[in-house]
Amino acid sequence: MEKIKYYEKLKFYNYVPVNKELKACCISCPDTEKYELELNEQLEEELKNVFQGNILDQIHAKNINADLKRDLQKKMNILSKRTDKAIIELIKRKINDNKNNQTIYNENEDDENTCMTLDLNKNNDAKFGHILHETINKLDNMDESD
Length: 146
Known about the structure:
Layout: H1 2-8, H2 20-23, H3 32-50, H4 55-58, H5 66-100, H6 123-145
Helix pairs in contact: 5-6
């Protein structure tokens, strides 16, 4: 009797013992068909919940206007070059007009008859003139490349 009590604690799921006393401790294998049916039902319910509605509504574009920007980028580059050229041309005209009209003086007496044109002796005007000269050269090179 003591051995039977000891054997009662043992449980065999996948092993079938040869001993008759141990065979009494065997547990039958669980029915997997029931589990498979339950899992398949749960899977079908989840799939129905996921695909409700229009699938295209669930797709979110990262950048909606990316194709438009890509198509217009070439034209925008040309326009930006033309805009830069027009601005430089206006600055050239303004400088030339100021050089031609050197007789225009500032009315303020503290400036002692300073001219409205660029005075390259001053530091700020010299830097501005140098930058302007470089940009004009770059734009001339762009004109030649176009």
